[in-house]
Amino acid sequence: MSSRKHFPQVIVALAVGAALASCASRPQEHFYTVSTADHGSGEGAESQRIKLSPIVIPALIDRPQLVVRTDRHEVVVLENHRWAEPLSADLTRALGQDLRRSLPAFQIAEANAPSDRTKPVILDVEITDLISGPGPSTSLQASWVLHDRSRSCMRSGALAAQVPTQAGDDAIAGAYADAMSRLARAIAQTIPDGGLCAGD
């Protein structure tokens, strides 16, 4: 009789043990961001306002998982290394942070920011290539157009760069952050100190 009494307890113990073993064998998931916790606007009262549209990114990297290139015609999706939020939103925030540092005399607002009475110029950015590998580098190809609402004033530019990247999957987010810093500096160099239409 005693063995029958303990039989349900044994079954429960085995089930719990199997569940714990399953959790222990499951690969740990890692989550990353390109942007930082710095949300300072750096806005001046009399500065011109630039509204940053959501960055357009390639379908290849527009997914929750990190993607690396291992060969000219091969990429690997890192299933257990994921972005903490949609990558386009994260890259847009990171670029906005870098633009505020590169253009302290301007207000940089994202597209979902509350509107005010000023007439902002609009910055549209498209990234056609942003991927790490093969090797210790991350490729970046991007273009941008800065314009007013009527498009009577426009400035555009493009950037192609190779960003040094450390070994390890966790270094990809840092490489993307460095890529956004380079892109922000390139954009800033095309904007006159007096504003979009200055000198036109």
What does this structure look like?
- By secondary structure, the protein is of the alpha/beta class.
- The chain has a single domain (32-189), classed as ABC-type transport auxiliary lipoprotein component (Rossmann fold, 3-Layer(aba) Sandwich).
- The chain is 29% helix and 32% strand.
- It has three helices and eight strands; from the N terminus they run H-E-E-E-E-H-E-E-E-E-H.
- The strands form two sheets. It has a five-stranded mixed sheet.
- The model has no long low-confidence stretch (mean pLDDT 86).
Based on secondary structure, the structural category is alpha/beta
Number of strands: 8
**pLDDT averaged over residues:** 86
Number of helices: 3
- The N- to C-terminal Cα distance equals 96 Å
Main-sheet strand order equals 5-2-6-7-8
Note the run of SSEs as H and E.
HEEEEHEEEEH
The CATH superfamily bears the name ABC-type transport auxiliary lipoprotein component
How would the global form be characterised? Answer: elongated
CATH fold name, please? Rossmann fold
Query: For the CA atoms, what is the radius of gyration?
Result: 24 Å
- Assign the CATH class: Alpha Beta
Strand residues, percent: 25-35%
Poorly predicted regions are none
- The number of domains: 1
Largest beta-sheet details: 5 strands, mixed
> What would CATH call the architecture?
3-Layer(aba) Sandwich
Helix content: 25-40%
